[in-house]
């Protein structure tokens, strides 16, 4: 590799989908350059951060007794400031290593978070070494990434189902007309599966196992769930305290996650109720577009479509829509800087 080719005199522009479950990084001119789980590994005795992202994931799997994992974001907002700074530092180190200048960062945040929560993201980015930081609403970025005509005078309805949050928004003429963010998404489904398995089978399982069976055999639709495979899961028998295993039917998984799906559908309906009559027809024709990892849950589009009576589809590459949208928005940094200086 020609190292000189990677050296840059100009400040790099980096887009970050700082998700509760995953961090995806975009570099202006290159596209997606990195994808890592949003976790850090801490030394079990001292509590120091020893690794972040992929490296942390590897350590936690290989030596579970030595390290504990911590996730810096909970329900889409910073829960642990120090860990978030470490994660962003890691991103900057990997993506702007041959740059003489600090990079510009653009980071997505859920709609409806407080000014204090927004400020925490900006401060963490600056502390991690950013030259300047810009924030973008997560569903806005998701809609751009999903290829919706957000600047047109039509109604674009987007539902981003992530790990910690579901972001629902109606976007028209490049602005958010109505929106709602709820703390019900993939993580809550995993917790619901874990609780259900413990109650029904007396087996305690880890959240990672719960997530795995959800991804493999989970269906949003109870009726459809019969078509998926049974899963054998290992855990700890609640009565004996010994390791044990049970076979989980796909209907169990579907049944366990119904309350989370119910909350998501209710929230979608509450935003649909706010659609102004002028663009209601567009929403009915264009339909609802699902993004985020939760959109990969089997039959979720079918369930939302049935409950809302609005055509619903999953976007292409739902896990990448937010960062692709941020990447598109990075082109506007000059304009955003101007706007910021006149405020
Ligand atoms: N095939 C699948 N089936 C069901 N769920 C899935 C699948 N693949 C990923 N997920 C879920 O998607 C979630 C992660 O999605 P995503 O990366 O969009 O979240 P995030 O952006 O990190 O979170 P947030 O936006 O809430 O901060 C996890 O809960 C994961 O279990
Ligand atoms: Mg997300």
Automatic annotation (TrEMBL):
Q: Which InterPro entries does the entry link to? A: ATPase_NBD, MreB, MreB_MamK-like
Q: Which Gene3D superfamilies match?
A: 3.30.420.40
- Localisation per UniProt entry: Cytoplasm
- Name the GO terms of the biological process aspect: cell morphogenesis; regulation of cell shape
In terms of superkingdom, the source organism counts as Bacteria
Major site of localization recorded for this protein: cytoplasm
> Listed GO cellular component terms?
cytoplasm
Q: Which UniProt keywords apply?
A: ATP-binding, Cell shape, Cytoplasm, Nucleotide-binding
The record's GO molecular-function terms, alphabetically, read:
ATP binding
Which residues are listed for ATP binding in this entry? 20-22, 163-165, 211-214, 293-296
Matches recorded under NCBIfam families: mreB, PRK13927.1
- Family assignment from sequence similarity: Belongs to the FtsA/MreB family.
Summarize subunit and interaction data from the UniProt record for this chain: Forms polymers.
HAMAP family (alphabetical): MreB
Role of this protein: Forms membrane-associated dynamic filaments that are essential for cell shape determination. Acts by regulating cell wall synthesis and cell elongation, and thus cell shape. A feedback loop between cell geometry and MreB localization may maintain elongated cell shape by targeting cell wall growth to regions of negative cell wall curvature.
Q: What is this protein called?
A: Cell shape-determining protein MreB
Q: Which organism is it from?
A: Jeotgalibaca porci
Encoding gene, per UniProt annotation: mreB
